[in-house]
């Protein structure tokens, strides 16, 4: 006699057969340039007149062409406004994304000291300093919200309130560049950003040559050089490595040194990979392994990351006037620390996504830097399960943990019983 199935049992069986729901909004990550920083750039660069926007767009395109040819241009009264208008949004956004991905590390440094020293080396118009200030604001707001929640919980049980100590910190900004004009414009934007800054602060300008910079006496906790290695050293990688070694020795033992470069195969990204191999014992990010860089092994590849973005509206408007397109938001980066073991504690089998999520009819593919190799992973969409559904959200820069996959001839297959977890996002917004 056939057993009758109750409606509730039937619904349960159907639910088990249904594929997991995919949140389409989570599948795309788009960086929206902050409105307040966009307004600061507009205020400093001179407004919204159509004829002036046309001038800025034409002049900035000319600077971009010079940059891509590998030629230097001075930051003076003629070039500094087009440079700020066009390049500042990209260099700010790159640095801001990296700082946000390091929030836990920055919070540890903040918690350990009453005064934090930040060094923006070859600062140009101080985009990295502004990005750091904006990141600190986010950390402060998050800390305040956490303390508020804790105190609300404690008040229910009549326990002593938790008092936040993060607001008592002082941040010292050192901004260094060879161009006094660039620093003047940059500190104007930085000071606008610092108008609602939740910490005590001090800004010090240093007009000097970055290649001869001595910072040991200031013992920075966080130092960054952004989009500048080629300008300073051209293609002399050995000199870069010697210089980086000097900076790394000069920062505090628990400090971090961040290097950001444009994603150029023969220049920026190549420099990053060579420096990374010279300092493999100090790498905090982005590398999930400590051995030889697999990108350098291949010889025809380079490590870089990118995301879609909405640039400042004035930049988009100006570019439209001349029939161009805004710069892409992509970069290569490296984070070094003498306290690498304290900051890098991800599982041994973790991998970094080093491509975009490549979607074709019925399948998803992406490349991972993992186990000292660049590995291609493939997922057939009909094999979706609760264990592997995060493959639909994988993005360039993610750290992912994949377990129980199958090795094929030219790729690794993510199966129905494969477990895939995104454990850290570079582009976390």
Q: What order do the helices and strands come in, and which of them pair?
A:
Layout: H1 7-17, H2 24-27, E1 30-32, H3 35-45, H4 50-68, H5 80-101, H6 103-112, E2 115-121, H7 127-156, E3 170-177, H8 180-193, E4 200-207, E5 222-226, H9 229-233, H10 237-250, E6 256-261, H11 268-278, E7 283-285, H12 294-298, E8 305-306, E9 308-310, H13 313-321, E10 330-336, H14 340-343, E11 351-353, E12 358-360, E13 363-370, E14 373-380, E15 399-403, E16 406-407, E17 412-414, E18 419-424
Parallel strand pairs: 1-9, 2-3, 2-5, 3-4, 5-6, 14-17
Antiparallel strand pairs: 6-10, 7-10, 8-10, 11-13, 11-15, 12-13, 13-14, 15-18, 16-17
Helix pairs in contact: 3-5, 3-8, 4-5, 4-13, 5-7, 7-8, 10-11
Structural shape: globular
**Secondary structural class:** alpha/beta
CATH architecture of the largest domain: 3-Layer(aba) Sandwich
C-alpha termini separation: 57 Å
Count of DSSP E strands?
18
Helix amount: 25-40%
Which homologous superfamily in CATH is the superfamily of the largest domain?
A: Vaccinia Virus protein VP39
Quaternary organization: single chain
Quick check: average pLDDT?
89
Domain count: the total is 2
CATH fold name of the largest domain: Rossmann fold
Give an account of the 3D structure.
- The structure is a single chain.
- With 429 residues, this protein is α/β, with parallel strands linked by helices.
- It folds into two domains: 29-343, Vaccinia Virus protein VP39 (Rossmann fold, 3-Layer(aba) Sandwich); 348-424, Nucleic acid-binding proteins (OB fold (Dihydrolipoamide Acetyltransferase, E2P)).
- It is built from 14 helices and 18 strands.
- Strands 2, 3, 4, 5, 6, 7, 8 and 10 form an eight-stranded mixed beta sheet that branches. Strands 11, 12, 13, 14, 15, 16, 17 and 18 form an eight-stranded mixed beta sheet that branches. The chain has a two-stranded parallel sheet with strand order 1-9.
- α4 packs across α5.
- It starts with 6 loop residues before the first helix and ends in a 5-residue tail after the last strand.
- Mean pLDDT is 89; it is low at 11-15.
């Amino acid at each position: 006699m056939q057993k009758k199935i109750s409606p509730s049992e039937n619904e349960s069986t159907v639910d088990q057969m249904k594929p997991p729901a995919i949140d389409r909004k989570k599948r795309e990550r788009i960086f929206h340039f902050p409105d307040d920083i966009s307004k600061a750039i507009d205020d400093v660069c001179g407004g919204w007149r159509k004829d002036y926007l046309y001038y800025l767009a034409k002049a900035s395109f000319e600077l971009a062409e010079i940059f891509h040819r590998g030629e230097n241009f001075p930051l003076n009264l003629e070039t500094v406004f087009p440079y700020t208008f066009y390049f500042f949004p990209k260099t700010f956004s790159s640095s801001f994304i990296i700082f946000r991905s390091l929030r836990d590390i920055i919070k540890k440094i903040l918690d350990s000291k009453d005064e934090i020293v930040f060094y923006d080396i070859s600062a140009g118009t101080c985009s990295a300093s502004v990005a750091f200030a904006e990141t600190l604001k986010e950390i402060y707001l998050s800390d305040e919200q956490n303390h508020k929640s804790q105190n609300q919980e404690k008040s229910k049980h009549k326990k002593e309130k938790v008092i936040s100590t993060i607001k008592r910190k002082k941040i010292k900004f050192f901004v260094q560049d060879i161009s006094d004009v660039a620093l003047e414009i940059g500190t104007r934007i930085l000071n606008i950003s610092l108008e609602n800054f939740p910490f005590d602060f001090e800004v010090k300008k240093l007009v000097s040559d970055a290649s001869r910079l001595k910072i040991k006496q200031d013992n920075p906790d966080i130092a960054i050089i952004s989009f500048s290695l080629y300008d300073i050293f051209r293609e002399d990688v050995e000199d870069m490595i010697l210089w980086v070694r000097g900076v790394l020795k000069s920062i505090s033992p628990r400090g971090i040194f961040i290097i950001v470069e444009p994603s150029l195969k023969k220049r920026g990204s190549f420099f990053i990979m060579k420096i990374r191999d010279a300092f493999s014992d100090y790498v905090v990010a982005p590398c999930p392994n400590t051995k030889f860089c697999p990108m350098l092994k291949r010889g025809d590849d380079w490590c870089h990351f990118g995301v879609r973005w909405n640039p400042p509206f004035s930049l988009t408007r100006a570019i439209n006037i001349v029939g161009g397109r805004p710069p892409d938001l992509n970069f290569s980066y490296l984070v070094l620390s003498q306290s690498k073991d304290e900051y890098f504690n991800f599982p041994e089998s973790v991998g970094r996504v080093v491509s975009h999520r490549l979607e074709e009819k019925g399948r998803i593919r992406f490349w991972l830097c993992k186990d000292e190799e660049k590995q291609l992973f493939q997922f057939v969409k009909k094999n979706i399960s609760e264990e592997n559904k995060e493959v639909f959200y994988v993005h360039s820069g993610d750290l992912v943990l994949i377990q129980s996959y199958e090795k094929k001839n030219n790729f690794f297959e993510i199966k129905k019983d494969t477990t895939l977890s995104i454990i850290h996002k570079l582009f976390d917004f």
